[in-house]
C-alpha cells in the first residue's frame, strides 16, 4: 500500500529495508473524479465517507498529522538521536521523560564528571 501512498499524485514508490522511497519524478495528479471512481484500484482500501460530500476530495482533504509528523519526521529524529551518530549525549546525561505529573529527568549510566 505505501508504494502508492501519495494522496495527491499517482507516483509509485519502491520499498527498500522496510521503507517506502518515492523517486523525484513528475507523475499524474489525482483528480476528484479519479478518487470518487477509484480508478487507481490499489490506492484505495474502500469507499471513503468523504465521497458523499460536495467537495473536491483531492484539494480539500487535509494531509494528516500522524502520517506526516509522527510516522515521518518524528520517527526519523528519534532514530537519529537514539540509534544514530548523535546518541552519545543521551548515554551520559540522562533522558528527559514526560509523565502525567510533569517533566522528570532520569539519569541513565554514569554521571558526567565522575
Automatic annotation (TrEMBL):
<protein>
    <submittedName>
        <fullName>Uncharacterized protein</fullName>
    </submittedName>
</protein>
Amino acid at each position: 500500500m505505501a508504494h502508492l501512498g501519495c494522496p495527491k499524485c499517482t507516483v509509485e514508490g519502491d520499498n527498500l529495508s522496510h521503507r517506502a522511497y518515492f523517486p523525484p519524478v513528475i507523475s499524474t495528479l489525482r483528480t476528484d473524479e479519479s478518487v470518487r471512481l477509484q480508478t487507481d484500484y490499489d490506492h484505495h482500501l474502500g469507499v471513503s465517507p468523504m465521497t458523499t460530500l460536495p467537495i473536491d476530495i483531492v484539494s480539500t482533504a487535509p494531509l494528516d498529522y500522524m502520517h506526516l509528523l509522527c510516522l515521518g519526521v518524528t520517527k526519523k529524529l528519534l532514530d537519529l538521536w537514539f540509534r544514530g551518530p548523535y546518541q552519545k549525549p543521551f548515554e551520559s546525561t540522562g533522558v528527559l521523560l514526560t509523565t502525567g505529573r510533569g517533566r522528570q529527568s532520569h539519569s541513565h549510566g554514569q554521571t558526567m564528571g565522575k
